[in-house]
Amino acid sequence: MVAMPMATFDSIMRELLPPERFVLYGSVLSEEVRHGGDYYVRSPKHGVFVKVSSLPYRTVREHNDYGIWDRLDALRNAPFYRMAITDESLPAGIEEGQHMMLDGDPFFCRQMMIASLGRIGYHPACPDLREAMLHDLDPYIRGWSATALGRIGDKRYTGDLIEAARGGQGEATDALGLMKDEAAVPALREMLEDSQRDHYLARFTRDYRRATMARNRIMDITEALNRIGGSGKLAVSEALSTEDPWLNWSAAKGVEYSKI
Question: Which residues constitute the domain of residue 172?
Fold first, then answer.
């Protein structure tokens, strides 16, 4: 049994699916049943069943979310998942764990365990997620761990996310946006200025690949700053008003992505 305050448990369980139910070929099953990757959802507007894959991305994300049974399952297994985070002898991703799949679902890979811990906001896993983010040999595990830390939102780990972001880990930059800690704004602003200078230098030397990478970093950083809000949005407004149209475009895309 996981020991946690009732208010924390209630907040985890509160984020449920909308009232529409998934169905398979017109026969109502349950919110969580799937078959062959095809889901159907009753359209609240027209009352007919629509294949989820035909819906716009934001609508799909709204309907095809993790419901109460997945959350309860993740909560029940959270202590076990936590122990598995830093065990590099276990399969890292879905591809490596295919031989351990059950009915087409990942049964035993660290990637899915880490995602589940972030989804339910399991604070006791933060030290292990930090260790995996900074030191795991698998770059995907490092990225998933950073994202989980951002979703959990424990601001004691903002400094660790900044360290990882400065080391070039894009997921850590995104996680700072999820964390929404204004203490990260000075570091993000510094990273933004470094990326802008790198872009100018790359354009001057006609290193277009390096210039593209700098613009991508600017998108990620401005996305994170806009999600943080407050002083972060002030830094974004400055990034939108440079003399270089490419830099302005990159910052504008970052703002756009932050609203998705």
Answer: 66-179
